[in-house]
């Protein structure tokens, strides 16, 4: 499990006083079935990787964002969403740490059927309007999830009295540019994450 305790000084008096021992702290505890962990270990071994840690999906995404865009996370709250066929969640990061996570209900069968139908364009639709047709159908499919997503954001902004500055979206449902643009049209803050920022490639002149 991951544990993070953050002490913030909100006044000059708090900055002058020595830190007090806290009898309570917010702790995030998670568990997983043994077969799932063993499956991850097996996959890492097949890929010739040395597995050092298994963590929650949203914790992993937060770590990736901290490594790729540290300057953004230190400015204002950032929302991170994950949309899959059977799982969806939204997490708000403040100063790079998750402060709110909400799991969203997903009807995988209904969602898969809706997406399949959304990409079926009738023959009478002109080629120039096919993308707009698909986008309009995707909006109907994503609408219930978007409402839950915005509800979580509204709750955070009300509780912390801060506005979300930016957002990123991950998951199988947003691998296409069209799906990501559709969510943006629905006023969901979700920029495209560039995984290349997580690594640096080095090569000799002979290899380039």
Percent of residues in helices comes to 40-55%
SSE sequence, one letter per element:
EHEHHHEEEHHEH
Task: Count all strands and give the number.
Answer: 6
Report strand %. 5-15%
What characterizes the major β-sheet? 4 strands, mixed
Taking Cα atoms only, what radius of gyration do you get, to the nearest Å? 21 Å
Average pLDDT score: 80
**Uncertain runs with pLDDT below 50, 5 residues or more?**
1-9
Per DSSP, the total helix count is: 7
Q: What's the helix and strand layout?
A:
Blueprint (H helix, E strand, L loop, with lengths): L1 E2 L8 H5 L10 E2 L5 H13 L10 H12 L1 H4 L4 E6 L4 E7 L2 E8 L3 H11 L11 H31 L5 E5 L6 H9 L23
Parallel strand pairs: 3-6
Antiparallel strand pairs: 1-2, 3-4, 4-5
Helix pairs in contact: 5-6, 6-7
Write a structural description.
With 208 residues, the protein is α+β, with helices and mostly antiparallel strands. It is 41% helix and 14% strand. The chain has seven helices and six strands; from the N terminus they run βαβαααβββααβα. The chain has helices at residues 12-16, 34-46, 57-68, 70-73, 108-118, 130-160, 177-185; strands at residues 2-3, 27-28, 78-83, 88-94, 97-104, 166-170. Strands 5-4-3-6 form a four-stranded mixed beta sheet, with helices on both faces. Strands 1-2 form a two-stranded antiparallel ribbon. Strand 3 (78-83) and strand 4 (88-94) form a beta hairpin. Helix 5 (108-118) packs across helix 6. The longest helix has 31 residues, at 130-160. It is globular and about 65 Å long. The N and C termini lie far apart (42 Å). The relative contact order is 0.13. Residues 1-9 have low confidence and may be disordered.
């Amino acid at each position: 499990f991951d544990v993070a305790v953050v002490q913030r000084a909100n006044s000059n008096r708090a900055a002058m006083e020595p830190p007090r021992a806290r009898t309570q702290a917010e702790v995030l505890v998670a568990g997983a079935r043994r077969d799932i962990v063993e499956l991850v270990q097996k996959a890492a071994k097949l890929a010739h990787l040395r597995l050092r840690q298994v963590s929650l999906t949203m914790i992993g995404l937060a770590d990736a964002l901290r490594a790729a865009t540290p300057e953004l996370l230190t400015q204002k709250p950032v929302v991170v969403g994950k949309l899959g066929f059977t799982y969806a969640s939204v997490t708000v990061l403040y100063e790079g740490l998750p402060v709110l996570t909400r799991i969203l209900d997903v009807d995988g069968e209904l969602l898969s059927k809706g997406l399949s139908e959304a990409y079926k364009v009738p023959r009478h639709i002109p080629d120039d309007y096919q993308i707009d047709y698909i986008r309009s159908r995707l909006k109907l499919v994503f609408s219930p999830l978007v409402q839950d997503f915005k509800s979580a954001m509204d709750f955070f902004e009300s509780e912390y009295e801060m506005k979300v500055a930016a957002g990123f979206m991950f998951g199988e449902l947003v691998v296409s540019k069209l799906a990501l643009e559709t969510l943006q049209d629905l006023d969901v803050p979700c920029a495209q994450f560039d995984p290349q920022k997580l690594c640096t490639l080095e090569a000799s002149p002979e290899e380039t």
